[in-house]
Write a structure and sequence with these properties.
Layout: E1 2-3, E2 15-16, H1 20-31, H2 34-48, H3 58-71, H4 76-84, H5 86-99, H6 109-119, H7 125-140, H8 149-152, H9 164-206, H10 210-216, H11 259-267, H12 290-293
Antiparallel strand pairs: 1-2
Helix pairs in contact: 1-2, 2-7, 3-4, 3-5, 3-6, 3-9, 6-7
């Protein structure tokens, strides 16, 4: 397919099919067989000669035609959505362009079946399949997979009273209907996948995930060191968070019954009444024992004061 370079600026560039002689020469030179070119051009004529496609923008128009034909059993709204589904149209356009290019040994048979079913009139589909199957065999060396020339070929059918001719026609019709439904379901599945991917992209743009928010926020904007990793402690029944501070040791009230004795013992620590005048040191005089100077705490009750001790004046 070639570009139309004579389009004025600002308008969409149109594409034209490669010339038949040039394409036939390229296919013959690449594959070394003229039957490949004959098969590819015969299938391309089905697309190019369709009334709604033509030789200009062929693959895009063919993609729109196929997408709408597959969605037609689901109603008019499904047809309109299929004609505007750019992801599905792009996929079909690339598929058509590759199958009719030089790298392909003629279009694959599933695509040929799809084109015949949606682009060829119903009364001509049987003969068209047989003709293209013969070209496929000449180009690729075998009949298409699943193709039975003894069923689709011009064989002699018994009399109608046996019922075999009617049964064969009914089965062929049901087979075509099932294929249409399968193609429509696949098109609908692709459309839903594209819609889901589009919605997911929009949600990521509006609100990124919570873990990304916590990681992307700079440390200078956080109120505390661990705000990006741990939450604040919550109150009871939905109360606002409570921040606890360590208590000061000098403000803690006593809790045990022995607090009075401990307090009394601390107040009397280091006091031994009025100081006496220091005399000569007598090494033989024993020093008073600690039990004689200080009361013993820990009994849970206030000990009796020592008679030799008096509280110093304030």
């Amino acid at each position: 397919m070639t570009n139309d370079n004579g389009v004025p600026p600002g308008r969409r560039r149109r594409h034209r099919l490669t010339d038949r002689d040039r394409l036939a020469e390229q296919l013959t030179r690449h594959w070394g067989d003229s039957e490949v070119a004959a098969y590819a051009l015969a299938v391309r004529d089905l697309v190019e000669q369709h009334v709604r496609i033509g030789p200009v923008d062929t693959w895009r128009r063919a993609a729109v035609e196929l997408a709408c034909a597959q969605a037609r059993p689901h109603g008019e709204q499904a047809v309109q959505r299929a004609g505007k589904d750019e992801s599905n149209l792009r996929r079909l356009r690339k598929k058509l362009s590759w199958n009719f290019g030089v790298r392909s040994r003629g279009p694959r048979w599933p695509l040929v079946e799809l084109l015949v079913r949606h682009l060829v009139p119903a009364e001509e589909q049987r003969e068209t399949r047989i003709r293209l199957a013969d070209l496929h065999r000449a180009a690729r060396g075998r009949y298409p997979k699943g193709f039975r020339p003894d069923v689709l070929g011009p064989v002699e059918v018994p009399a109608a009273e046996s019922g075999e001719a009617v049964l064969v026609e009914l089965l062929e019709r049901q087979k075509a209907e099932l294929r249409d439904r399968l193609d429509a379901s696949q098109a609908e599945n692709l459309r839903l996948r594209a819609d889901l991917a589009h919605l997911t992209d929009r949600l990521w743009q509006v609100e990124p995930p919570s873990d990304e928010v916590g990681r992307s926020s700079p440390p200078s904007l956080r109120s505390s060191r661990n705000e990006g990793h741990f939450g604040h402690p919550t109150g009871l029944d939905g109360d606002p968070p409570v921040r606890r501070k360590p208590s000061r040791a000098d403000l803690v009230a006593p809790r045990s019954s022995g607090a009075a004795g401990v307090t009394f013992w601390l107040e009397g620590f280091g006091h031994d009444g009025p100081r006496k005048t220091a005399g000569p040191v007598d090494r033989h005089t024993p020093s008073p024992r600690p039990t004689d100077r200080f009361p013993q705490p820990g009994t849970g009750r206030t000990p009796a004061p020592n008679t030799a001790w008096r509280r110093p004046p304030a």
